[in-house]
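== Sequence and structure of one protein ==
=== Format: two labelled lines per protein ===
==== Data for this protein ====
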Amino acid sequence: DSFAQLLKNVKPLVENQKAVAVFGEMLELGDKSAEAHRELGANAARLPFQKCIFIGPSCKDFEAGWQSEKNENYPIILNTYKESLDLDLLSMVDKQSLVIVKGSRGGALERIVERFDPIGFSRK
């Protein structure tokens, strides 16, 4: 639900500016994990992200959802956070970019946020 709400809330923003999304694994979904990640991929593909990145073991489900929407702006799909270290995330954005980072707390995506060196950011 929080992912769906996030996408709904950012839709007007991403339609009017350069936007990069970094999504992480949704944990503790049990039997609904594959379906939920496919739905997330499909919903994300409906928005005009300049770049979309998914990190987590459900990457194939996210990718299948994205592909179902025929979005030609192919996402970056990573199975683990460690793979993201090879990405030059800062080259994907400029000072006007909107960067969206969302995932379960267990995915520790604050490590991604820290790479952007935001003013006043704290892990707390």
